[in-house]
Amino acid sequence: MDSRIKEIIYTREEIETKIKELAGWVNEEYKDSKDFVIIGLLKGSVPFLSRLMMDVTVDMSIDFMTVSSYGGETSSTGNVKIVMDLKKDISGKDVLIAEDIIDSGITLKSVVENLSSRNPKSLKIITLMDKPTGRKVDLYADKVGLIVPDAFLVGYGLDVKEKMRNLPLIGVFDQDKLDEI
Ligand code: IMP
Ligand code: MG
């Protein structure tokens, strides 16, 4: 095992079994949709979304958005900047936002407010991980994969200094190893 990981929270097998289950939810939820788009928030959602979409059997398209959060204030829109916007208009579409993890909820709350103003037919959130103890704003996902503890996690999209997103597990990062990154 990677010596920078203190503890494995979820193994690859556990994560991928859960993602299959989430795809089942997507297939049921969007079976009657005429225009369904999943929006991945870059970069953390990439491993999750790439797995998920292979088990999605309803017609769908994908689009991506990069946002950067400044944190601090809890008042939403002001503290999240759109670094890269969607390529396509979402008005009239069934939109599902895919995220790696919801912690404070600040990032996603701003994204939801922003995307709502573009008049999608529906707007929902699916997240691979949820850290409910970190929540600072009123924001809930419509579908959650794995509940995780309030720790500094890496893997399956989660990074430390942009590294380790590729680890095929969810683990607790040993912060004593921060200067090795
Ligand atoms: P929020 O606005 O606090 O909900 O921020 C969520 C974002 O913070 C996620 O999309 C991740 O990029 C990042 N994040 C939250 N928790 C962790 C963690 O434990 N490790 C690495 N990144 C995290
Ligand atoms: Mg993220």
Describe the structure.
By secondary structure, this protein is α/β, with parallel strands linked by helices. 21% of the residues lie in helices and 31% in strands. It contains three helices and nine strands; from the N terminus they run E-H-E-H-E-E-E-H-E-E-E-E. The strands form two sheets. Strands 4-3-2-5-6-7 form a six-stranded mixed sheet. Helix 3 (106-116) links the parallel strand 5 and strand 6. Helix 1 (12-29) crosses helix 2 (46-54). The longest helix has 18 residues, at 12-29. The protein is globular and about 50 Å long. The two termini are 16 Å apart. Mean pLDDT is 94; it is low at 72-78. The structure holds inosinic acid and magnesium ion.
Quick overview:
With 181 residues, the protein is of the alpha/beta class. It has helices spanning 12-29, 46-54, 106-116, and strands spanning 5-10, 36-42, 61-69, 80-84, 94-102, 122-130, 143-147, 153-154, 170-173.
Strand order of the largest sheet: 4-3-2-5-6-7
Helix coverage percent: 10-25%
**Bound molecule types:** inosinic acid, magnesium ion
User: Which structural class is indicated by helix and strand composition?
Assistant: alpha/beta
Number of strands: 9
What is the mean pLDDT? Answer: 94
Strand content: 25-35%
Terminus-to-terminus distance:
16 Å
Assembly status: single chain
